[in-house]
Specification:
This protein has about 1200 residues and is mainly β. The protein has 9 domains: about 140 residues, Glucose Oxidase, domain 1 (3-Layer(bba) Sandwich); about 120 residues, 3-Layer(aba) Sandwich (Rossmann fold), CATH 3.40.50.200; about 130 residues, Jelly Rolls (Sandwich); about 80 residues, Immunoglobulins (Immunoglobulin-like); about 80 residues, Immunoglobulin-like, CATH 2.60.40; about 100 residues, Immunoglobulin-like (Sandwich), CATH 2.60.40; about 80 residues, Immunoglobulin-like (Sandwich), CATH 2.60.40; about 90 residues, Immunoglobulin-like, CATH 2.60.40.10; and more. The chain is built from 7 helices and 85 strands. Helix 4 packs across helix 5. The relative contact order is 0.05. It comes from Selaginella moellendorffii.
Length: about 1200
């Protein structure tokens, strides 16, 4: 049978079919995505049907001999078996027995689908089964033979078309040919066709018709379609669908054949045996029924896009690509290849001579072979790829010369025809490449990046080339490149970048058109040249002309600036530029050239232009260190407001210094000076500096208007005043401090927990300074101030205790020291801070039967007369305590007591003295019973008798208890204190600056202090020395003849020496002296106590005592002060406190001047205090919040008084 002619089968004519059947649509696919086949399966009428969404299950290939028995490893799988061999029903039973989930049988003949015969034994079939045509079976069998893992799932059902026209006639032949080629290739209606009937034996025309059936009726219909296709091309309807004579062309027979096959539509009815027809490509219907509406673009009738090409001849190994863009919503895509194959030898087993291959690569890069097989077709000279439900993207159709032994009479190779069609398909060039992101035409960056976009694929390579206008190794010939091309370090030159895509999938490499991009790299900036300038001092208008030495100069930028006028940056300009100044001043005209690459002249040309129409005058430039300072020396720099004017020489300068008070008193008048003017040793105050210029001998017009500035000298540090502080003992963890500075200042503060390793952390703060969630402990808050002149004031401090732990009763014992009294002895513990905070008040309560249940203040021992206690009744004794931080326990301690008639206690107890030095104690008592038991210092009771001796005992408190054992009895007891140590004397005192100073005396001793003895002694040779006399521990007053320093005679110094006193200062007149003395007292520490002071362990903090100042009498004369510090020379420092540490001496200071004296020997020390107008003196006591400001209206010198020594001695018994 001819391989180049178009073979046509006969389909049925119009009408309705009497059969209606459905096909289950099964999808057979490979996991790697290389194959995806959808096949309708003709379901058997027995067993169960294939259900939608059934699967997926793996597919197993069965050998015919094995399919007649249960195939191994078939459980859970779909078995694919051939129709040949034993009966398919027997195979189906064996397959079900093997545990398979379904069976698919493919025809071993080319008759399409086939039904299985029905038998009574089929009632036991419970798995779905069906048949498929041979072409699909061979396809799946080939995939499984090559080791592909195929899976099966149901994706729907194919409805049967009931139209007769979609079914084949029974008389139409079917393929394949003897050598296996595809026949027929198309079908056309051949059943009951109405045709013209000739008038047999007559030459006259006739209008008779004849109805005939047969393939002889199908072929004329097909020939008519071919004639219309040829006319379509000859009249120029291709490709626009409209008649355009310029488009006229004569199509080849292969092209007409390809168009007819490409437009064929599939039959979906029955084959000639009455079974559902197998889909194209099949040996029943070929590629389908011809349909010109699906073959050609007919405007107004369809929206088909058709590409019909007669490609260049192909030789072995050569190929040709056709590229198409598919858009969303497209119908099925078809690609058809046809060629006229040379005749084969008569004895050839394979009729095909020149073998061309068609394959299509879809957007998912899946390769689809012609005629739907898993491998290229080696039998037919027509191949087609049909894509159902295509995805959008690029489709590449490749026609490849697999084997072309006959290259034709011209030796060019095998010619072919190619057709592609779909509603949303458009042809696009296969090899397209362009640079899309390129450098600017002119640039000054030596590194360039070029982005390339174009056609890509497995056999397509991109090549790039870079040409330069100069010899450079950076240029290169064609080389492989990607979509991101980068070159760095390119020298200045003109460059051309070329890019080309090459398809190397065939022996004849395909080349795209070369795309270009040109650019210039220029990194050398242009140089600006000033040609002329008309600027002058006395002319308000100036004209500037300029140019550039670079031929690539693109434009110029100008800038015209002064202290008054500005052009607001660089602006475009051109030569010449005319500018106009409307006020005096210095102007600068700048101009720079900018080339096409964007390079700017790094050194713009400029012209300074001075316009001055007024006389120059003095101008203050700066003041060093600054106009507000705490040093007495400063420098004032000045110059002319318009220096270096033409014709103006250096002027003669005059300066003046005034105070800035109301009268403006002059420190000195106008006098010659020069810049800088140095002002030294200025006392505190506000000064006005005036500077003026005068013409020198060479002349010149200068203005005599002076320039002035203000200089403020302020060496007085600011003082900080507390307005609100926490209480000394606080039960709250949140505290705040309110304070203020004597002048505008920056305050810094520090909160430190004492007796810990915590370091001081100073930071800026403002009032009020709040601190939250403080832990229990002793805290010290420190604050200081620094004014605008840089003076830092004294650090003032305040200590307080945070104690949130209430006291608790740790022991509570009832006793009956005599017959008429019950004694409750208890002790209270205030926790870890008890030694600092301490118990303030203890409270006792008896039950309501005795005292109404009221809490009353009490102390241990708490004595209750027995007459208040009813015998035989239970009484409750209760105790609780409150500390000095106002913490009071929520619960209390209690003891219960029931007095009976025989309750009695030991009487007549004789104890040691309450305070004694004796370490052996003797205790005696009367006992009316046979024996007693005793207890010492809360130890166990032991049998004892009177007298009872105990000792030796250590220093401290001791207790003794005795009671009867014959019956329940209250115990009797006593306490005493053994003290063999020496007491220490302590003093609290405020500043002693009156004639009647007051001192608060205190002492420390384990056993307590009995009394104080005091003595007052004057260091003045005419003074009186008092003898020792008894004095009160409370504040005592002594009348002295002069202000006294206070000296302590004691064993050691303790913290209590410098606790806050309630009196910050006092005032008194000194009788018999013309001066109203204002000197205050200081704490004078004897030399012998300095070492003990330095070695004290109390928080390692230095202590300080500050001097107090009171205004002197306005009428008192200024008296020089004699400084007596032994042979030492007074040293001056900025310290503002009397302080002693291990590293520094004691400093006696004031707010302005001070004398430092090293306590290295016995002696009398005095100090100098000086005040100035408007100044203030801050008085305060170390660790205390009390402040006092005392104003001194006039400068005065204050002399020290004679020194008195007050000594205190504690006497202990």
């Amino acid at each position: 049978m001819s391989k180049n002619s178009l073979t046509v089968g006969a389909s049925m004519g119009p009408g309705h079919s009497i059969r209606h059947e459905n096909l289950a649509l099964l999808r057979f696919y490979v996991l790697n995505g290389t194959s995806d086949l959808r096949v309708g399966v003709l379901e058997n009428s027995f067993g169960v049907m294939f259900q939608d969404n059934w699967g997926p299950f793996p597919l197993l290939r069965a050998i015919p001999g094995e399919a007649c028995i249960s195939p191994p490893n078939a459980a859970g799988m779909v078995v694919l078996a051939s129709r040949e061999g034993c009966d398919c029903i027997d195979k189906l039973v064996a397959i079900q027995d093997a545990g398979s989930v379904a069976a698919v049988f493919f025809n071993n003949e080319n008759t399409g689908y086939f039904p299985l015969s029905l038998r009574s034994s089929l009632e036991s079939i419970t798995i779905p089964s069906g048949s498929i045509p041979r072409v699909f079976g061979d396809y799946l069998d080939s995939m499984l033979t090559h080791g592909d893992s195929v899976f099966v799932e149901v994706v729907g059902h194919v409805p049967f078309n009931g139209e007769r026209i979609d079914s084949m006639t029974s008389f139409s032949s079917w393929g394949p040919t003897l050598d296996g080629r595809q026949k027929p290739e198309t079908v056309a209606p051949g059943d009951k066709i109405v045709s013209a009937r000739s008038n047999m034996g007559s030459k006259e025309a006739t209008c008779r018709t004849l109805v005939l059936s047969g393939t002889s009726m199908a072929t004329p219909i097909t020939a008519g379609g071919a004639a219309l296709i040829r006319q379509y091309f000859m009249d120029g309807f291709y490709p626009t669908g409209s008649k355009v004579l310029a488009h006229s062309r004569q199509p080849s027979g292969a092209l007409v054949k390809a168009i007819l096959i490409n437009g064929a539509v599939p039959l979906r009815g029955l084959n000639g045996n009455g079974v559902i027809i197998d889909p194209p490509l099949s040996f029943n219907q070929g590629y389908g029924r011809i349909d010109l509406l699906h073959s050609l673009f007919l405007p107004g009738h369809n929206k088909l896009n058709v590409t019909a090409e007669e490609g260049n001849p192909l030789k072995t190994g050569f190929g040709q690509r056709y590229c198409f863009s598919c858009f969303p919503g497209s119908e099925d895509l078809k690609f058809t290849l046809a060629w006229y194959d040379p005749p084969a030898l008569p004895a050839a087993s394979v009729i095909l001579v020149n073998d061309l291959d068609l394959f299509v690569i879809d957007p998912s890069n899946t390769k689809r072979y012609g005629n739907g097989g898993p491998r290229p077709d080696r039998m037919n000279n027509v191949e087609q790829v049909s894509v159902s439900d295509p995805e959008s993207g690029l489709y590449v159709a490749v026609i490849y010369g697999y084997y072309v032994p006959e290259e034709g009479p011209d030796g060019l190779g095998q010619r072919f025809a190619f057709v592609a069609s779909a509603a949303s398909l458009s042809a696009t060039p296969c090899l397209v490449i362009n640079p899309v992101e390129v450098p600017p035409l002119f640039g000054n960056i030596a590194n360039v990046r070029i982005t390339v976009e174009g056609t890509s694929g497995p056999y397509i390579k991109w090549f790039c080339r870079l040409d330069a206008s100069i010899e450079t190794p950076k240029g290169h010939d064609w080389e492989i490149c990607g979509n991101d091309y980068f070159a760095e370090g390119l020298p200045d030159a003109f460059y051309t970048f070329s890019v080309q895509a090459r398809d190397e999938s065939f022996l004849n490499t395909a080349y795209s058109e070369i795309s270009f991009a040109s650019f210039t790299i220029d990194t050398i900036p242009p140089r600006t040249i000033l040609l002329s300038s008309s600027a002058s001092v006395f002319c308000e208008t100036a004209v500037f002309e300029f140019s550039s030495d670079s031929a690539d100069t693109d434009h110029f930028e100008c800038q015209f600036t002064s202290g008054i006028l500005s052009s607001h940056g660089w602006t475009l300009c051109g030569s010449p530029v005319k500018v106009e100044a409307r006020s005096d001043g210095r102007y600068t005209f700048h101009v720079r050239a900018v080339d096409k690459a964007g390079n700017q002249d790094p050194q713009p040309v400029f012209v300074h232009w001075l316009l001055h129409r007024e006389r120059p005058r003095a101008k203050i430039v700066t003041i060093l260190p600054k106009d507000l300072t705490n040093v007495s020396t400063c420098r004032v720099y000045f110059e002319l407001d318009v220096p270096n004017l033409p014709g103006i020489q250096e002027p003669r300068w005059s300066c003046r210094l005034n105070l800035s008070d109301i009268e403006g008193a002059a420190v000195y008048g106008w006098r010659s000076c020069s810049s800088p003017l140095e002002l030294s040793n200025l006392p505190d105050g506000i000064y006005i500096v005036s500077v003026r210029a005068a013409e020198n001998e060479s002349g010149g017009a200068l203005s005599s208007v002076p320039a002035t500035c203000t200089v403020t000298i302020d060496s007085l540090p600011p003082e900080v005043l507390f307005f609100a502080v926490p209480p000394l003992f606080s039960s709250s963890r949140d505290v705040s401090y309110a304070f203020a500075s004597s002048e505008v200042s920056t305050t810094t503060c520090c909160m430190t927990k004492l007796n810990t390793a915590e370091e001081e952390r100073w930071q800026q703060c403002t009032s009020p300074a709040r601190f939250r969630n403080l832990e229990d402990g002793v805290y010290q808050f420190s604050v200081t101030a620094t004014d605008l002149a840089g003076n830092t004031g004294l650090v003032i401090k305040h200590r307080f205790l945070v104690d949130t732990t209430p006291p608790s009763v740790v022991s509570f014992v009832l006793s009956q020291p005599d017959l008429d009294v019950v004694t409750a002895e208890f002790s209270v513990d205030d926790g870890p801070l008890g030694s600092t905070s301490g118990v303030a008040t203890s409270y006792c309560r008896l039950d309501s039967q005795v005292q109404g249940g009221t809490w009353i203040p009490c102390s241990s021992p708490w004595r209750v007369e027995q007459s208040y206690l009813a015998p035989g009744v239970e009484h409750t004794f209760m105790v609780k305590a409150e500390d000095r931080a106002s913490n009071i326990a929520l619960d209390h301690a209690e003891q219960k007591l029931v007095l009976t008639s025989n309750s009695s206690a030991v009487h007549g107890l004789v104890c040691p003295e309450a305070y004694t030095r004796l370490q052996i104690a003797t205790l005696a008592f009367n006992s009316s019973l046979s024996w007693t038991e005793c207890e010492v210092d809360e130890q166990v009771f032991v049998a004892c008798g009177s007298p009872y001796h105990v000792g030796p005992l250590v220093d401290g408190a001791h207790t003794f208890k005795v009671r009867y054992l014959s019956s329940f009895s209250l115990w009797s007891g006593c306490k005493w204190y053994i003290d063999t140590g020496t007491p220490e004397t302590l003093i609290r005192s405020s500043v002693v600056n009156t004639l009647s100073p007051s001192f608060e005396l205190s002492g420390y001793d384990g056993g307590g202090i009995e009394r104080y003895e005091c003595m007052l002694q004057s260091l003045d040779p005419q003074g009186q020395r008092h003898s020792w006399r008894k004095c009160s521990r409370q504040l005592m007053s002594l009348r002295t003849r002069a202000i006294a320093f206070v000296e302590l005679q004691e064993h050691s110094l303790r913290k209590s020496h410098y606790e806050l006193s309630s009196s910050p200062y006092a005032s008194a007149a000194l009788s018999g002296n013309a001066l109203d003395m204002g000197i205050v007292a200081r704490l004078c520490v004897p030399v012998s106590n300095v070492s003990s002071l330095a070695s004290t362990s109390y928080d390692e903090q230095p202590f300080a005592i500050f001097l107090m100042l009171r205004k002197t009498n306005e009428s008192s004369p200024t008296v020089p002060l004699a400084i007596s510090t032994g042979n030492a020379t007074p040293n001056y420092t900025n310290e503002l406190q009397l302080i002693y540490t291990r590293e520094s001496p004691i400093l006696v200071t004031t707010m302005w001047e001070l004398v430092a004296a090293q306590l290295d020997q016995e002696g009398t020390y005095v100090t100098t205090l000086v005040t100035r107008p408007g100044s203030y003196m801050l008085a305060r006591i170390y660790e205390g919040p009390t402040l006092a400001f005392i104003k001194a209206s006039q400068p005065r010198m204050i002399v020290s008084s004679t020194t008195l020594i007050f000594m205190c001695l504690c006497i202990f018994v």
